[in-house]
């Protein structure tokens, strides 16, 4: 069985340098390949497993741009990007389609289990659930 290959054509317009304390990048190119490869790897290497979610990522980037245009703080924007990347990585690990009813329900159950194990705070879980 062969994998579908994503040929990295790293696009600068999908990468946003944020004005945060750590000068974080929101590189949406990273979400196009399974495993969330680093920006550096995407720029240097050419083949990755295609995550087959370009439409989702472009929509997410558009919403990100809208929030930026509306004055959302760059720290908030980075937190949104980071949360999305964690969700996509989790979907990749479990080979689930992002934004399906099944994957969303399973991810929230996973988050609830983290609360019960004491790995994340209940308030963090509530915040993620309200943003769902």
Number of helices: 5
Query: How many β-strands, per DSSP?
Result: 4
Unreliable stretches: none
Structural class: mainly alpha
The amount of helix comes to: 40-55%
State the shape. Answer: globular
How would you characterize this protein structure?
The protein has about 130 residues and is mainly α. It has a domain at about 1-80. It is built from five helices and four strands. The protein has helices at about 40-45, 55-70, 75-95, 100-115, 120-130, and strands at about 5, 15, 25, 45-50. The strands form two sheets. A two-stranded antiparallel ribbon has the order 1-4. Strands 2-3 form a two-stranded antiparallel sheet. β2 (about 15) and β3 form a beta hairpin. α4 packs antiparallel against α5 (about 120-130). The longest helix is centred in the middle third of the chain and has 20 residues, at about 75-95. It is globular and about 40 Å long. It starts with a strand and ends with a helix. The model has no long low-confidence stretch (mean pLDDT about 90).
Brief sketch in words of this structure:
This protein is mainly alpha-helical. It is built from 5 helices and 4 strands. The protein has a domain at 1-82.
Task: Quickly list its features.
132 residues, mainly alpha, two-stranded antiparallel sheet, two-stranded antiparallel ribbon, 5 helices, 4 strands
Give the helices and strands, then pairings:
Blueprint lengths: L4 E3 L7 E3 L7 E3 L11 H6 L2 E3 L4 H16 L4 H20 L7 H16 L5 H10 L1
Helix pairs in contact: 4-5
